[in-house]
């Protein structure tokens, strides 16, 4: 399912590009209202807000094509377990949506005039936290699959869910204490452990 997820994302590469572009645009807007000396302090919050919104946007059509052509029905009947199959899709989702945001972090460092040390903390926080955001956005996409105004519902679900990860990520990027980094890592491990099964249950509920 990982390979299939990557191939589907490549066919929908405009969606992935839109998510990345949205991330960069949101991250670039904040410095316009600030003096240069205040930019670096705002970078963690602005970047994490942009990442939360961009991963939500990148999940809008995560399961749409598979639901339309019947692949989701086969996935739910997979002999190896729905959780493992969904886990492959979630890995592909991170590679095609989350990883590009991480790769764009040097541009964010330029927007905010970050030092190498500040950028490194921000990049590590994104590396630890983006998988959790991808899992949460995928769960929201599974719950709202086929719903009217699904994009609005997706945002209403995922943004509140993502607030703890957002706060841990901001704290980790600011480097105030190691506690935020540990909490961020714990949140991601929790999401990775339970996320595939939760997404699978949501898809199964939608199929019934």
Automatic annotation (TrEMBL):
<dbReference type="GO" id="GO:0015232">
    <property type="term" value="F:heme transmembrane transporter activity"/>
</dbReference>
<dbReference type="GO" id="GO:0005886">
    <property type="term" value="C:plasma membrane"/>
</dbReference>
<feature type="transmembrane region" description="Helical">
    <location>
        <begin position="122"/>
        <end position="145"/>
    </location>
</feature>
<comment type="function">
    <text>Required for the export of heme to the periplasm for the biogenesis of c-type cytochromes.</text>
</comment>
<dbReference type="InterPro" id="IPR026031">
    <property type="entry name" value="Cyt_c_CcmB_bac"/>
</dbReference>
<keyword id="KW-1133">Transmembrane helix</keyword>
<keyword id="KW-0997">Cell inner membrane</keyword>
<feature type="transmembrane region" description="Helical">
    <location>
        <begin position="152"/>
        <end position="173"/>
    </location>
</feature>
<keyword id="KW-0812">Transmembrane</keyword>
<protein>
    <recommendedName>
        <fullName>Heme exporter protein B</fullName>
    </recommendedName>
</protein>
<comment type="similarity">
    <text>Belongs to the CcmB/CycW/HelB family.</text>
</comment>
<dbReference type="GO" id="GO:1903607">
    <property type="term" value="P:cytochrome c biosynthetic process"/>
</dbReference>
<dbReference type="Pfam" id="PF03379">
    <property type="entry name" value="CcmB"/>
</dbReference>
<keyword id="KW-0813">Transport</keyword>
<keyword id="KW-0201">Cytochrome c-type biogenesis</keyword>
<feature type="transmembrane region" description="Helical">
    <location>
        <begin position="45"/>
        <end position="63"/>
    </location>
</feature>
<keyword id="KW-0472">Membrane</keyword>
<dbReference type="GO" id="GO:0017004">
    <property type="term" value="P:cytochrome complex assembly"/>
</dbReference>
<keyword id="KW-1003">Cell membrane</keyword>
<feature type="transmembrane region" description="Helical">
    <location>
        <begin position="179"/>
        <end position="203"/>
    </location>
</feature>
<dbReference type="InterPro" id="IPR003544">
    <property type="entry name" value="Cyt_c_biogenesis_CcmB"/>
</dbReference>
<feature type="transmembrane region" description="Helical">
    <location>
        <begin position="75"/>
        <end position="102"/>
    </location>
</feature>
């Amino acid at each position: 399912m990982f390979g299939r997820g990557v191939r589907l994302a490549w066919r929908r590469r405009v969606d992935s590009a839109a998510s990345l572009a949205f991330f960069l645009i949101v991250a670039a807007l904040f410095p316009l209202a600030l003096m240069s000396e205040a930019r670096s302090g705002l970078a963690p919050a602005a970047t994490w807000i942009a990442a939360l919104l961009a991963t939500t946007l990148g999940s809008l059509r995560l399961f749409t094509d598979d639901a339309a052509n019947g692949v989701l029905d086969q996935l739910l009947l997979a002999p190896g377990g729905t959780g493992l199959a969904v886990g492959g899709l979630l890995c592909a989702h991170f590679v095609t949506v989350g990883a590009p945001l991480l790769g764009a972090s040097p541009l964010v460092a330029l927007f905010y005039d970050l030092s190498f040390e500040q950028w490194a903390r921000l990049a590590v926080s994104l590396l630890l936290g983006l998988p959790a955001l991808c899992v949460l956005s995928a769960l929201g996409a599974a719950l709202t699959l086929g719903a009217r105004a699904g994009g609005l519902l997706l945002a209403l679900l995922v943004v509140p869910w993502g607030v703890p990860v957002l706060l841990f990520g901001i704290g980790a990027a600011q480097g105030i204490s190691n506690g935020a980094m540990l909490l961020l890592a714990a949140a991601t491990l929790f999401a990775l452990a339970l996320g595939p099964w939760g997404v699978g249950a949501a898809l199964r509920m939608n199929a019934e």
